Amino acid sequence: MFTTGSKFLIGASVLAVVAAILYGVTQDGVLGTVGLTSAAVAIIGLATANALLRDSNVFLDDEAPADTSSAAQYAPGSSPWPLAFAFAGVIVAVGLVSYQPIVVIGLALLLAAGAEWTVSAWSERASGNVDHNAEVRSRLSNPLEYPVGGAIAIGIIIYAFSRVMLWLSKSGTVVAFSVLAAVVLAIGFAIASRRSVQPAAIGGVMAFGAVAMVAVGTAAGLDGERDIPEFETTTIWQEEAILHPAEYAAGAEEGKHPAGLICESPEEFPEADERASETVALKSNAIQVFLRADGSLEYDTPGNLPLGSDAVTIPRSNPTNVIFRNESDEDARLSLDMGTMTVEADGEEVEARHQICTTLIEGGGAQLLTVEIDQPSFAFSDPNPNGAGPGIWFFVPGTESATLEVLVP
Amino acid sequence: MRDPQTGTTLSNVTHLRSAGRARHLRLAVLAAAGLAVAGCAENAPQDIFQEKGSNAEAIGDLDFVYYIAIGVGVIVAIVIAWVIFRYRDRGQPIPEQTHGKPILEIGLTILPALILVGVAIPTVGTLMALNETDDTECIVNVTGQQWWWEFDYPVQDGCGGIDEPIVTSGQMVIPADTNVLIRGTSRDVIHSFWIPALNGKRDMVPGRIHTLRMQAYEPGLYAGQCAEFCGLSHANMRMEVAALDDAGFEAWKANQLEDYEAPFPSTKAAAGEAAFIANCSRCHQIDGLLDSDGSPIVARPDQQVYSGAAPNLTNFMTRNTFAGASWDMLIDDCREDVWEAPSDQFTERYLEGVTDACFKESELREWLRDSTAKKPMYADPEELEETDGLFRGMPYLALSEDQIDDLLAYLLERK
Hints:
The complex is a heterodimer of chains A (409) and B (415). Chain A is α+β, with helices and mostly antiparallel strands and 409 residues long. Helices cover 49% and strands 15% of the residues of chain A. In chain A, a hairpin with a 5-residue loop joins strand 1 (287-291) and strand 2. Chain A contains ten helices and nine strands. With 415 residues, chain B is of the alpha+beta class. In chain B, helix 6 crosses helix 11 (401-412). Chain B has two domains: 51-90 and 97-131, no CATH class; 136-415, Cupredoxins -  blue copper proteins (Immunoglobulin-like), CATH 2.60.40. The chains are: A alpha+beta (409), B alpha+beta (415).
């Protein structure tokens, strides 16, 4: 009833179960019990499979297996997948002890190699006809292989291209693209001018280009990205001065930037949008503030009313765009002083000026400043050092006469 | 010949069917006429055909476009109906298929083009004229937010001179017969400002300033409402424009800038002041209100309300509607006195504000009792994740009836 192999495995299963029970009861060890139970389960599984398949035994007088058994089949050819599978396993093991992300790469390769190996092995047993087996394999796996393989190849090329772009300098990019465009044009012309071109030739050119791209991208990636100088916005400079006064002062002493708050300084800082002169559509801004050549500040708003210089009204709790136009001959910035605020700096609560400002604008330039004030101006009752009285004030650092009161209803 | 089913003679059946059809046709014509006439109410406050200002009149002068469009529409409909009837399938052979008549096609292209040109020239001219702002003499900043309108008057030489900013809500007060420039924006979503009797619609877009010129020929109250869907209470986002004569406008300005008058001690109004400070002053500003230390109380709606602002209630009872001008504070008789006042009497009646005798406290009481039940808003304190914990609209305050009584007494004095 049971074949020899099955009897052996059944006996081993019973032994494993008994051993697991005895160990668990007498030794009270969790690890050992789990191990023996796992072994018992595995052996029971093998025994079941073996019993169902009857040991894959082939009797001497059994005629059918002479044609259909594995030994009678065409021997499979060499396959790279077992090697790839083993290699992927090694990558997983290496990743576990070194760099964790390599484990993910190894697992992905393991999955891919395992799937390919499975499909190959299955197709080799589909029939006795090698060509038919190959066709069956292609029909099953090509719909997945081509798109995935193509996506991976394109991804590699694009990634390599991106490394090249990050490595090239600003001017180098212009040269590189000019040369590349000329090369593409030349190759295109060469192909188009011939009466006929071998597909293999075009394929070779494309392959060469792809390999060259990947090679250059690898080299550029290893060399690293180009240096991109960092510029700070005025808000960041202001916060640095308030929140990290010690480092800020040290930076000023080293000459990295002027001392003092940027919004109170007429000097040049390494600022983002340096020498920017942005023009914003009239509908997007409510107010224009002009720094006149005589050092006065005036404002204009949409509508027919004349320019004002005493006080400008800004709605409460709504971002208001103010365009600053520097009509003087000197570089200048427009700052807004909204009184004091309490912030935590180095673990302590400190009071600091609540200010925002534009970057330094060249004479004749313009820039936008977005202002939002959440309290009415009567809430700002303390004297404002940057204005002619208490409240909220626009001012131009370095130009004493350039102040403009802001009223918020 | 008799109809076997009904027993009536065929001639009678035909007559009955014709009679039925004629009755239906008469009913249809009557219904259509009724619908057409229904849009012609005499005292509809938002009737675009009752222009009360120069800009609305300029738009109204384009009504010939309607008549041209109606005429063209009727002609086309008649032609289509005739073709459908005249050439319906009666079993006749299919007519000869020709390429067409080029002259007819060209003619029927040129004719509509000419009609369109004839319509476009005055229309574009009117649009450009309406966009002019060079002749404005007074500036009002209009800010829409869910679901009310704020009007602030910046410091300016216009409007007869304003030295300190004024802010109000719900009712915008302007001098009559003056070109007022509205500079509109929004604090949250897109709204649309529309006072039909005075001008067309203008979208109020966050981050942008859109200008609109407004002018009222005579003193009066002109109703409007938000014309761009803006959320749950879009239908409750109304506003009014109160046009006053010059003297009245000066008086209104002066009143808005008067110093705060605290209520007499030990009165219900004084208790109301305390209740206001305790419950309302987080969001609603009343200028001049002081705390126990004598420091001005500064409302911080930016910390409570999603849109960042709440109506300023400094002179609350100088306007006669509240909550996005959706509810009245005047009893019916007094309301009619103001709304229907002749133009030479309107200014005086409007400047009276809400008096004790005319105060319709029921609506305001309901509002204070539970604002969220009166006006749909996302004010549920347990569902504020979407707005980072901020209220969209006025929340439920759980005020007692005594507190409401006190608040009403206090607010009634705010004028």
